[in-house]
Design goal:
By secondary structure, the protein is of the alpha/beta class. It has helices at 60-73, 77-82, 85-99, 116-123, 135-147, 184-194, 210-217, 233-242, 258-262, 269-275; strands at residues 2-3, 21-22, 39-41, 106-110, 127-132, 152-156, 169-175, 195-206, 246-252, 286-292. The strands form two sheets. Strands 6-5-4-7-8-10-9 form a seven-stranded mixed β-sheet, sandwiched between helices. Strands 1-3-2 form a three-stranded mixed β-sheet, with no helix packed on it. The N and C termini lie far apart (40 Å).
């Protein structure tokens, strides 16, 4: 067992995902010969030792799974998450914490879904561009943009290979999409290049929770689809620094498990609104890291 710490590596080593992995390729590149010989243990995740992953070139299978899942979910995406009273409360909460760190002017949004952030950010005065891997979600966002008279550009593409020029944006915003990326370090490297000096990357993601991980392993809870990588705040912050960013804020932004918000019914929501500001963050399952490109 060796610690994975190889940035310039073969396809197997290029996945900085916080899991132990059994590498299928027995012919590693020269950069990581001492590392790619078997089971890898990523710093901070000893409890995840033994997870086996069959890899397909450059995360293609993971990206295809995300695209197909969200193509399937497009019609019920918002109603399933934000249709309940608790979901509407979470929608307002998420929009607040996701946008409070943005600086004025241009924003590239990673993962538009059905366009609720295209609507929200355009109305706040941002020059909005979105990139989305699901073609059905792209269509939904474009339809919403037309119906709501939004000045928004939406591109069907891959956030790890964005079709934009360097220095094009003041902000890059990823709202709970980061945990789907096969190569989060590659994404942050591309984000750094796309930002102007002083620009910001604002990234929220689902957190690694040991109890939930154990429940998945014991089949007490179903594994969420599409599959995702649960991160710790510290590990994401380290990835930001590794790719040149100055981390200006990092922490939890929710105070309850995500599904608790989505499934909360009317009688409880008014009480939650009154007491939410005083609740501790200990049960929160969404983290946020904000990085700034040096001027």
């Amino acid at each position: 067992i060796r610690i994975h710490d190889c940035e310039h590596a073969c396809d197997a080593c290029r996945l900085p995902v916080p899991e132990a992995r059994e590498i299928q390729d027995r012919n590693p590149c020269p950069n990581c010969t001492p590392i790619c010989s078997g089971l890898l243990l990523v710093r901070g995740y000893p409890s995840r030792l033994g997870v086996k992953v069959t890899m397909e070139g450059n995360g293609a299978s993971q990206k295809r799974a995300v695209r197909e899942r969200y193509n399937y979910e497009v019609r019920r995406y918002e109603s399933a998450r934000f249709g309940s009273p608790g979901g509407r409360f979470f929608d307002a909460l998420e929009k607040d914490y996701a946008t409070r760190f943005l600086i004025p002017r241009t924003v590239l949004h990673i993962g538009t879904a059905t366009g609720r952030f295209a609507s929200h950010l355009s109305r706040l005065g941002f020059q909005y561009t979105g990139i989305e891997i699901s073609d059905a979600m792209v269509r939904a966002t474009k339809i919403r943009s037309v119906n709501e008279f939004l000045n928004a550009e939406v591109v069907h593409g891959d956030a790890e290979n964005p079709p934009f020029r360097a220095g094009s944006f003041h902000n890059i915003l990823s709202v709970r999409s980061f945990h789907f990326l096969p190569h989060p370090s590659l994404f942050l490297r591309k984000a750094y290049a796309l930002l102007r000096p002083g620009g910001r990357a604002v990234v929220s993601f689902e957190l690694f929770v040991r109890l939930r991980d154990l429940a998945h392993r014991l089949h007490l809870l179903p594994v969420p689809l599409p599959r995702r990588t649960f991160h710790t705040i510290a590990d994401v912050a380290r990835l930001f620094v590794k790719n040149g960013f100055q981390v200006i804020w990092a922490g939890k932004v929710t105070k309850l498990p995500l599904l608790s918000y989505w499934r909360m019914t009317s009688p409880l929501v008014p009480t939650l609104r009154r007491i939410h500001h005083s609740l501790p963050y200990s049960l929160g399952t969404v983290g946020l890291v904000v990085g700034q490109k040096p001027t």
